[in-house]
């Protein structure tokens, strides 16, 4: 099981994206858990995550969140284009790639 945490200002703008990503994962029989939280909850919620994807509206916090999490899991901002278009397939693939690359290291 791969645990993918999405994080934005309030955890609401990513909720629709979570649903779309989960639908694609289910359709492709991928074992993933995807959920969204607001930025203040990322520290505790990330304890169960394999990767943290940030909404573009908090891209400026990527470096700070990476440091707060101690580099133990990948943190990356979703591209504004993919986020705006709700390109769930591309975002899911990127999350899985980040997890796979992190496990190699």
- Sequence of strands across the biggest β-sheet: 2-1-3-4
Report the C-alpha radius of gyration, rounded: 12 Å
Structural class by secondary-structure content? alpha/beta
Q: How are helices and strands ordered from N to C?
A: EHEHEHEHH
Distance between the termini: 19 Å
Biggest β-sheet strands, sense, barrel: 4 strands, parallel
What is the mean pLDDT?
A: 95
State the shape. globular
Helix content: 40-55%
Strand content: 15-25%
Please count the helical segments. 5
Q: In terms of per-residue confidence, which ranges show pLDDT below 50 for 5 or more consecutive residues?
A: none
User: What's the count of strands?
Assistant: 4
Quick description:
This protein is α/β, with parallel strands linked by helices and 105 residues long.
Question: Any overview of this molecule?
Answer:
- The chain is α/β, with parallel strands linked by helices and 105 residues long.
- The chain has five helices and four strands; from the N terminus they run βαβαβαβαα.
- The protein has a four-stranded parallel sheet, sandwiched between helices.
- Helix 3 links the parallel strand 3 and strand 4 (75-77).
- Helix 1 crosses helix 5.
Essential attributes:
105 residues; alpha/beta; four-stranded parallel sheet; 5 helices; 44% helix; globular; phosphotransferase system; phosphoprotein; sugar transport
């Amino acid at each position: 099981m791969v645990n993918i945490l999405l994080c934005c200002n309030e955890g609401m703008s990513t909720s629709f994206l979570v649903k779309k990503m989960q639908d694609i994962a289910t359709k492709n029989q991928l074992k993933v858990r995807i959920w969204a939280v607001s930025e203040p909850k990322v520290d505790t919620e990330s304890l169960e995550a394999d990767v943290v994807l940030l909404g573009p509206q908090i891209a400026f916090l990527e470096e700070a969140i990476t440091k707060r999490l101690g580099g133990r899991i990948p943190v990356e901002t979703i591209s504004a284009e993919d986020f705006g278009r709700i390109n769930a397939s591309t975002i899911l693939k990127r999350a899985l790639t980040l997890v796979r690359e992190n496990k190699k290291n």
